[in-house]
Write a structure and sequence with these properties.
By secondary structure, this protein is mainly beta. It contains no helices and six strands.
Length: 101
């Protein structure tokens, strides 16, 4: 099985964004459907932390499904402790999907 994956380490320079954070929504499409990778990286106390979620939109699914999710322990949380990253990325409540590799 061939696997391809690239992680942005460190936050790329020259993109005209803050060097303290990087937000990206990456879209992939194939004949059987597609998926979206929601990636948020942030510099916290000199350490790069990330939150990542992959959503599948395959033709065999009746609705979108979370395929994997990873949120580093040090990723910033709201005051109530909930990890609500932004309008695109809300951490799954209840049973957790597998960690993204």
């Amino acid at each position: 099985m061939i696997q391809h994956r690239a992680t942005i380490q460190p936050i790329p320079s020259g993109l005209g964004i803050s060097s303290d954070y990087f937000n990206a929504n990456v879209f992939f499409t194939a004949r059987n459907g597609g998926w979206t990778q929601i990636l948020r990286q942030q510099l916290v106390r000199g350490k790069l932390v990330k939150a990542e979620q992959v959503l599948g939109q395959f033709t065999s699914l009746k609705k979108e499904k979370i395929l994997c999710e990873t949120v580093d322990q040090d990723f910033p949380r709201k005051e109530n402790g909930v990890i609500d990253i932004d309008g695109d990325f809300r951490v799954t409540a209840g049973s957790k999907p597998p960690r993204c590799q």
